[in-house]
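Working notes for the structural subgroup meeting. M.R. asked for a predicted model of this chain before we commit to crystallization trials. I am recording the input and output together here so anyone reviewing the notebook later can reproduce the run.

Input as submitted:
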Amino acid sequence: MDDQHYHATKVIIISLPIGKDDDSVILRVQKQKVDDVIYRIGRKAPMSRLMLDYCVRVCPVYGTINFCFSFNGKTLSTNSTADDLALVDGDIIDAWTHPMGGWLMSSMNS
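Returned structure, recorded in token form:
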């Protein structure tokens, strides 16, 4: 028997609602220091569905972090779809955060 060790990994795929006449695509959302989240989403569904779900799952307190999402270096629009972006199964969407607060928030409250 060889000395190779195999590790099982737990993978959960979040399946968002898919329209009756819509195909789906499997996408991975990744962010530093956070486990990747894998989604099954309709090809015609707006990316806002994936973005909102991701924010709710990852953000400890709603509204305290502003997430941005990109694919191949381009920021995603909430209205764009997998078809618009020519996404295929296994594509990776990058997520990063901008903490809310500081100068912008203090100037808005004045």
